[in-house]
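Contributing new records

If you add data, match the layout below exactly. Sequence lines come first and carry their own label; structure lines follow with theirs. Keep one chain per record. Anything else will be rejected by the validation script.
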Amino acid sequence: MKQLFALLVVMFALAACGKEEQTSEPVAEPAPVEVETQDTNAEEVADTGEETAEETLEVVEESAAVEEEAEDEAIVLAMAETETPLREWKFREGEDYFRLVPAQPMVGGPDKIEVGELFMYSCPHCRDLDPKLSRWASELPPEVRFVRIPAIFNRAAQLHAQMYYTTELLETNGTLTEFEQFHNTVFEEFHRRGNRLMSVDAIERLFSRFGVSPEDFDKAWNSFPVNQKIRVAADLGRRYGAVSVPTIVVNGKYRVPNSLDLLDILDELLIREGVR
């Protein structure tokens, strides 16, 4: 009986130890789960957020650009509405003057606006116009240059062109001091005194009346500058399409035939060229 009791005590102790060990055994904590999809989604969300921000910025910038363009257009329209109307010109191209296309060379350089008169000493209209045109030219502003260009339509005109450029050269070197008076005298000799100046001897005698020696005359008459200017004058006459004289050419762009309104037409064309 005692042995049975002792056996029961031992079994009870073993059972108690087994339960205690089971209850005291530490419970394993669940291993942390790496949520890769969450990290990936976070990165995608971040990228998406940046792209959205960039797109939003672009939209804002585009909207601002559109607003600026709209403001600029509004300013331009406002300026257009307040702009001074175009000037109404009195004289018409193709009727009162003719445009040279393309623009042609001039006697002088492009530093000034040039008004060139094609003339002939044998032309009575050139004689009548000369004093009026000379007075008009004397009042031109400094930025405008007036030049005479002998028109060379025939042999007599070429001889007179040589006389004109000889006069210019003798004035330049100081041999002839009364250029305008000599120029006017040629018109008087031809039209009122019947002296047609159709020979070199007749022209030389006229120069001698103004104190030019035969030696100075011969040197200038046969000089390279005079012959070169004759060639230039003949070329310009062809380029300008001049078929009659007097003809005025403004800045190599406009050919103006003689008319009662000639000087007014010249004034208007100079305004077109920027002269005020």
